[in-house]
Amino acid sequence: MDVWNGTNPSYFVLLGLTDDPTLQLFLFVLFLVFYVITFLANIGIMVTIRADSHLHTPMYFFINNLSFLDLCYSTIITPKTLATFLSVTKRITFVECLMQMYLFGASVSLECFLLGIMAYDRYVAICNPLLYMMIMKKRFCRQLVGFAYLGGYLNATIHTSCTFQLPFCKTNKIDHYYCDVPPLLKLSCIDTTMNELVMFIFGGIAEMSSLTIIIVSYSYIISAIWKIHSQQGRKKAFSTCTSHLVTVSIFYSTIVFMYLRPSSSYAMSQDRIASVFYTVIIPMLNPLIYSLRNKEVTRAFVKIKKTFIPNLLWYART
Fold first, then answer.
1. Interval 207-229: pLDDT, tens
2. 4 vs 197, which has greater pLDDT?
3. What is the reported pLDDT for 301?
4. From CA 91, how far away is CA 108, in angstroms rounded?
5. Per-residue pLDDT tens digits for 258-311
6. How far apart are CA 154 and CA 160, in angstroms?
7. Is the dihedral of CA 252, 258, 259, 261 positive or negative?
8. CA distance 169 to 8
9. Does the pLDDT at position 9 exceed 70?
10. CA dihedral 91, 94, 98, 104 (to 10 degrees)
11. What is the pTM of this model?
């Protein structure tokens, strides 16, 4: 095994999801299809929001950022995973592994904060509709997203620096399909209790703080909705929250299962399945949830398609 700095390997070997060549080929095709759908769906959401002036509101500003984030953290993981499915050596260099873990950790933390911000946005829209545009000004929305990025990258810096200062002297084989904290801790030949504690505390702060904002916001939202006298008014108010609630439920149930449980209960086979869900499935589902359940996005997309495709055909003919 090559040596990096006298103690750590210069590369790792990603054992992936399976060692069966036939199954690897099937997973390659499946992951490729998922990634193409993820790419097109998120790009479609971003283009639609940017092209339609009616969607230039705080809610769609946050949805646009969520789509960009889903596209980013899917891209951080999936292309390398596709390459390893077809590779014999399945190597990832030490620096690539570090960067993959750092960028993915930042993206996960950032999505936690962003979902919390989106819950607050819905709270203001439903509980203080007359003051909504005064409170959720463009500058304030950008500041909220900026703080989310700051918190996400700070959290990732802590996790990555704590993990990669460890000596990886047991083996260079990672029992996973990408570089993540739990499988990397298993490669260290020293006690990693402190690292697990840091992961639990700082990961918990990021996840539970945003989850608290979501729970508090929706407690006020539900209370406000029940005060609406007409059933149609209640349905309309709640419909603006359903997409966000579905996204929150799927994302947080997976994240809590992955990172906020005792290390003694870690089973890499279960973790790999859960990881596929939030690295591949969730980034694909989010834009579909927000587009299929949102009439404004659907109408805007249809409108753009009706104008874009004829123009494209006209340019092709000329």
1. 888 989 999 999 999 898 888 87
2. 197
3. 67
4. 24
5. 655 555 555 566 677 778 887 888 888 888 887 766 677 777 667 766 665 555
6. 10
7. positive
8. 6
9. yes
10. 0
11. 0.85
Per-residue confidence band for 148, with pLDDT thresholds at 50, 70 and 90: very high
User: How many whole angstroms separate alpha carbon 61 and alpha carbon 119?
Assistant: 13
Q: Which residue has the tokens 């002036």?
A: 53
- C-alpha span between 284 and 36 (Å, rounded): 9
Q: Give 234's contacts (C-beta < 8 A, 6+ positions apart).
A: 225, 226, 228
